[in-house]
Amino acid sequence: MERLKNFKGKWDLSLVVLLITEILIFGWINPRFLRIHVLLNSANDFVTVAMIALFMTFVIITGGIDISMGSVVGLSSVVMGLLWQELGFGIWTAVFCAILVGTLCGAFNGFLVAFVGVQAMVATLGTSFLYAGISLVIIGFSGISAAEGITGFPDSFRAIGHGEFMGLPSSIILFVALAVIAYILLHRTTYGRRVFLTGINRAAAEFSGIKTKLIILSTHMLVGTGAAIAGIYITSYLSSSRADHGATIILSVITAVVLGGTSITGGEGSIIGTFLASIIIGLMTLGLQMAGMPTQFTGIGIGLLLVVAVSIKSSMGEGNLISDLKRKFQKESK
After folding, report:
1. Does 176 map to a domain?
2. Can you give 81-106 as a three-state secondary structure string?
3. How far apart (Å, rounded) are the C-alpha atoms in residues 216 and 62?
4. I need a labelling partner for 320 at 20 to 30 A (CA). Which of 104, 152, 205, 221 fits?
5. What pTM value is reported for the model?
6. Does residue 72 sit within a domain?
7. H/E run at residue 165
8. Does residue 10 fall inside a structural domain?
């Protein structure tokens, strides 16, 4: 039982072992997988997931969830493209406005959950359809084909998705920068402690003077901002502004957060865990594709990861098989 407790306390270490094992297995299947430039450039395929997952960690720690972020990715992409192409905004002004839109979408979600009292899953399911619909409506009014999207962005903007610094792809630099910001905010500030306390026991947190409604609202604003940044990045990387960017991203985001060690019921989580889990998911997708699996089937691996992660985390809680066995062994040892 002591070994089990040690395993629970070293979830991040377990993720490191899983990551190394994954690299070795896929490298054995296809030696090209082990090439440094392949691994570095693979970040382009999972960084959008990671950008949202890092801040989704905050939301889930408070006991909530946000499944509208895929639609926010598309909305921010469309808003930026239309402001730049149709209204003549400067590209960086359009980028700023798109990020602001994402933050406001998150604020609306947080308002519904924290102040109106709508259950998080229901609220964000509704706003997911709302934001996706708005994206299609505004791009339709502009006369632009939703399938083709907006293209022709300047090279300075495209450098976000295709640039390099000191030999490192811009995707990795952006990923690490956001991870550092999220880590400091969650693990090194009073705000982060309040996020954890809100998730552990909201009533007790309120009794101690923490304004939990504002905490919940702010976490949704953070993930909205992360989704907007992801929308900007994917628009730059694909050189196309479309409403369907992010349409299939939410499963991978939730998997990254839960696999990273964040309790789906709140009160527990780690930015480092989410950081590692995002890489694991990204390399799994790449590895399966390089192993010859069709792209449309790679979701099977991600789904299995989510089921396994939730099962293991649940099995380490109270009132389940492992906790029952633990109590039984403790009685027998007496």
Report:
1. yes
2. HHHHHCCCCCHHHHHHHHHHHHHHHH
3. 7
4. 205
5. 0.87
6. yes
7. strand 164-165
8. yes
Domain count across the chain? 1
Element (H, E) at 150: none
Percentages (nearest 5) of helix, strand, coil residues in the chain: 75, 0, 20
Of the candidates 272, 280, 322, 304, the one whose C-alpha atom is nearest the C-alpha of residue 8 is 322
Going residue by residue through the chain, which has 334 residues, state the pLDDT in tens, using 9 for 90 and above. 344 344 445 777 888 888 888 889 888 988 888 888 878 777 877 889 999 999 999 999 999 999 999 999 999 999 999 999 888 899 999 999 999 999 999 999 999 999 999 999 999 999 999 999 999 888 877 777 666 778 888 888 988 888 887 778 888 899 999 999 999 999 999 999 999 999 999 999 999 899 999 999 999 999 999 999 999 999 999 888 888 888 888 888 988 898 888 888 888 888 999 999 999 888 888 888 887 777 667 777 777 777 776 676 666 654 444 444 345 445 444 5
Length of the chain, in residues: 334
Q: Could you tell me whether strands 168-169 and 164-165 are parallel, antiparallel, or unpaired per DSSP bridges?
A: antiparallel
What b/e readout covers 141-160, taking b as 16+ CB neighbours within 10 angstroms? eeebeeeebbeebeeebeeb
CATH assignment at residue 110: 1.10.3470
Range of the domain at 310: 2-326
